[in-house]
Amino acid sequence: MGMTNSASEPTALIRAQGLTKVFGARSAVDGIDFEVRDGEFFGFLGPNGAGKTTTMRMIAGVSPRSAGTLEIFDMDPDLHGSEIRGQIGVVHQQETLDMELTVLENLLVFGRFFGMDRASIATRAAELLELFQLSDRAKDQVEPLSGGMKRRLSIARSLIASPRILMLDEPTTGLDPQARHLLWDALQRLKRGGTTIVLTTHYMDEAEQLCDRLVVMDQAKIVAEGSPRQLIVEHASREVLELRFPNGTESIDTKVLEGIGDRYERLAERVIVGCENGEAAHARALEHGLDPESWLVRRSSLEDVFLRLTGRTLDE
Amino acid sequence: MIASLAPRAFSVFERNVFVYRRQWLIIVTGFFEPLFFLLGIGYGVGGVIGTIPYGGADVPYAAFVAPALLASAAMNGAIFDSTFNIFYKLKYGKVYDAILSTPVGVGDLAVGELLWSNLRGVIYATAFLIVMLALGLVASPLALLTPLAVIFIGFSFGAAGFAITTHMRSWKDFDFLFIILTPLFLFSATFYPVEIYPGALRWIVELSPLTRGTHLVRSLCFGDLNWLMLVDIAYLSAISFIGYRHAVRRLGVLLLK
Ligand SMILES: Nc1ncnc2c1ncn2[C@@H]1O[C@H](COP(=O)(O)OP(=O)(O)O)[C@@H](O)[C@H]1O
Ligand SMILES: [Mg+2]
Predict the structure, then answer these.
(1) 3-state SS string over B227-251?
(2) pTM value > 0.80
(3) With contacts defined as CB-CB under 8 Å, which chain B residues touch A86?
């Protein structure tokens, strides 16, 4: 179970083929293939229930897979879970901090779980508290910390043993915008330091900002893969025209919508039109007699990629 | 020693040391219950009946009851931790999810928790032994071995309690635990010799793990080495092993879905 490391090709730290997880009769993850390479920031983008958490759990070896192959550092997590977990840091979607311990103790105890000696733990813990701006709370209980602080502490804790891969399951869900940006900065710094990061999110802006490469997951399957830019170029048009109809969109003639741009999606109160030039598309819409309450033109985003691939929005 | 043999299990034990450094008062309270029984029953009832036949001689009643109370102190220490505290962690805290995302596995987790619950039993037993020495209730220097002997009691009740706890759905289920524990404490040759029970009933009582634990401790306190003590140890070890295996399997079902 040694690590093979050929210098020529970029090393894949995680490799999954046909990875499947079945709960009862339902597939939570249904035959997905992906590869996470050394040093990259890799994302799983998908709505609730897509199978992101289940995939993360299989990687950490805390959820035995139902079928397929999975290798982390060339090891099977169902057989070498402990060794693999020794080199990855996991931040769960739900808070798993130890409420019976102080901020600092959370780190100290965690270092022991990784088999570190007390002296190295103390040094590393002080470093991490500093890095995540928690030094002045070291002796405090965890419970009263703000959501953003708790999340930072969770990440600091997961880094105690300097893992090769950091796995974050929806790290910014429930955080206010400021706390979110603080966290994004911290993650980008870590990445620059050489840590491979795997992140799940249902925020397309987060995926777009952070990820070098990502897979889009929906209903247990991977529906697209690539860099954010590639995905947008491949699956969305250059610009997007959004037309708002507060009274509903059912009554609008399909023929009219087809004539406005390259493609369109009809949502409950909005029509989203993919096109080369949004202003021109808007002019065509008015020509066809449409009377939207408001409209806007923007560049395509991952949201549009998702919409295009699944016919739904990410937060539905 | 354990730290180098099973470092991961020991790290789980260490976590509890961190937690209870601030809550040592909770641990201390558990020591008083057997003390009250010793004063109330050992000296109270003992004052009325004086002595009781044991091992072919008449011994002071308090000296007869004390080893049984020491054994039950170890039982209580181990049971309390492996039931209430572990149920809380399984049900409400997400601590176990965090622990299992590290190299620590469910087997390490179970051993670590059992080491801790056992320590609690050993502390109670040792404190009680000191009281017995002070009150002159110890007949043999072999009694000094009781803190080691209660490790078998602590592991068997700790492991059994842990295994049962993995099946509990709510705090209400703990009522069942007390329906088992109270008679176990009262009837396991604690306050009178097991020979008092007639026929089949006696054999049921002989099978109580606390009867075995009490026999082990009482034999040591009276300096009466006998072969049956090996049966006690084997029996308690078997319960520990079965309870541990079951607890680990259940932890897998509950946490490694
Ligand atoms: N332990 C479980 N038992 C049964 N179904 C589960 C379990 N965990 C997850 N699921 C189901 O699997 C699907 C994927 O869940 P999850 O991986 O949590 O998705 P995500 O993290 O993308 O929101 C969901 O339909 C969820 O209900
Ligand atoms: Mg999830």
Answers:
(1) CHHHHHHHHHHHHHHHHHHHHHHHH
(2) yes
(3) 102-103
